[in-house]
Amino acid sequence: MSLSMYHASVPLFVRALTNLHHVLKLGEKHANDKGVEASIMLQTRLIPDMLPLVKQVQIATDMAKNGTARLAGVDPLKFEDNETSFEELYARIDRALDYIKSFKPEQIDGSETRTITLKMRRGDMNFEGQAYLLHFVIPNFFFHCTTAYAILRESGANLGKEDFIGKQ
């Protein structure tokens, strides 16, 4: 049996966002243990020209929820991008997970050739569904999940590979 578009997207996003939630919890614990204000941790960056932790989480959730919706051929649910606390980030991840889980396989399977156009600052980006998922959404999604992990790890949080990947 071949891998369906649904199984290549929804379960992957659910697992990784669940793990991101876990990683953030460990990062928050580290901040609390060290007396670092949450607002400082949420604005931490790896280097000055990279986006802060809070934005990494916002983009990761956007990639997952927007990618799923576009594969299903529906307009993505919009989030405000106004989180200022760990609790608000957890709620954002939970909202994204609920939204992603609401999609059924029949909404996404068969989307391999669906035309998807993204309006970007530099102009439109046009994809067929499979290329959109495999070459745009998944790499961007994991870039931002990984960067969030790296910010917390670099800040001293007690994180390991299993926290990022999850238990089997």
CATH C-level class is Mainly Alpha
Report how far the terminal alpha carbons are from each other: 22 Å
Question: Unreliable runs, pLDDT <50, ≥5 residues?
Answer: none
| Averaged pLDDT | 96
Name the CATH homologous superfamily: dinb family like domain
Task: Characterise this structure.
β1 and β2 form a beta hairpin. Strands 1-2 form a two-stranded antiparallel ribbon. The two termini are 22 Å apart. By secondary structure, the chain is mainly α. The mean pLDDT is 96. It is built from 7 helices and 2 strands, in the order αααααββαα. α3 runs parallel beside α4 and α3 packs antiparallel against α6. It has a single domain (10-163), classed as Up-down Bundle (Four Helix Bundle (Hemerythrin (Met), subunit A)).
Short précis:
By secondary structure, the protein is mainly alpha-helical.
Features of this protein?
globular; Four Helix Bundle (Hemerythrin (Met), subunit A); two-stranded antiparallel sheet; mainly alpha; 60% helix; 168 residues
Topology:
Layout: H1 10-34, H2 38-42, H3 53-72, H4 86-101, H5 105-108, E1 115-120, E2 123-128, H6 129-154, H7 161-165
Antiparallel strand pairs: 1-2
Helix pairs in contact: 1-3, 1-4, 1-6, 3-4, 3-6
